[in-house]
Amino acid sequence: MTVWFAKKALLPDGWANNVSITVSDKGIITALAKETEPAPQATLINGVVVPGMPNLHSHAFQRAMAGLTEVAGNPSDSFWTWRELMYRLVDKISPEQLETIASYLYIEMLKAGYTSVAEFHYLHHSNTGAPYGERAELALRISSAASTAGIGLTLLPVLYSHAGFGGQTPSAGQRRFINDTDGYLALYETLTTRLSREPMQRTGLCFHSLRAVTPQQIDTVLNCHPGQQPIHIHIAEQLKEVEDCQAWSGERPVDWLYNHVPVGERWCLIHATHLTPQETQKIAASGAVAGLCLTTEANLGDGIFPGVEYLAHQGRWGIGSDSHISVSVTEDLRWFEYGQRLQAQRRNRLYTPTEANIGNVLYHGALSGGAKALGQNIGRLEVGYRADLLVLDARDPFIASAQDQMLLNRWIFACASNPIRAVMTGGQWVIQEGRHSKEEEIGRAFTQVMKELVV
User: Is residue 388 flagged as an active site residue?
Assistant: First the structure.
């Protein structure tokens, strides 16, 4: 057991002073007391302690293309033209390069306040479309990268079989993604067994989108795995996707999903940008998590999620950095609120009847929804939960001067520089004084990979 002592910490029931946190050798919080004196064996945490944030949606390889698509050339530039560049990049990535990219990204995540990540992993095969000798080669590279960085991982191998609704033949650019149902189930079983040996890693089920799988495939996979694994899917991100789904089925994507699949608390619906009021209410009532990727959705021009209406229905949500055009907990949280302001041309949109401070609504909401989407015992400083925490620098003027109820507001909306001084995952310090022990070595390797991957 290790005992830590924080002068100020954010607990499930709010801010507390003089908090003693006992952590087992397995990285689990076993005792917690507030308004107490430090025990003789306790080590002082020098700063303000908050729970680490789950990142519920990541495509690690896309970090390598950040900034490359910001060149005007097509007056109809959209998600669909962006996707063509992504296909050209993905054609070049080797297993070794993928591990380097993911390792560098996961260190960036830790420094930015993300202590666990759901990796929506659909890069499965070689650039010819043929499986590697070890079919799980690329997914295991993701697992290895997470271990190297020290970040928690929910690995979501993705079932991706078709190019469009109704089982359309995949394109050449998608050949590295494609599995049939049997191949996918075998991959999932392999990864579930392998990751069971890793203390902060697990798997979940994942369908790329309704356009990439058939109804029969969804049924088969769910019937094979009726347990409590998380289930993730992209849905209703783009208007074209909504229109294509209507042309195929006569229903919008979210309506189709709820009318044909038993969607509940296991599910995370990524983006869900384009919703009717009825669909918004339906997601909230089901207990599913809306997976919001605010910087990516802005970068791709997806649209704006109906956040005010969703919160009014007490919907569960979390944040992800998705394509990693930006890796920042505070930026994604800010943009959830700012998008609502721009749409309504009003201020202070995401509040609740019991909480007027926007930062509190944002941070606590993302913690709760993210933990649920990852299926991990995280997101709270509480007995029985994994010891994942951030230490904010109490010397930062905005942090040092903030009263408790304003502290998250100050951090999220005021701090121009990153005040995260240290990060613990599973009871181990992975960031100290703002640095990761392996970031220079991995940074050099990442620089070389970036030079090699000229699109």
Answer: no
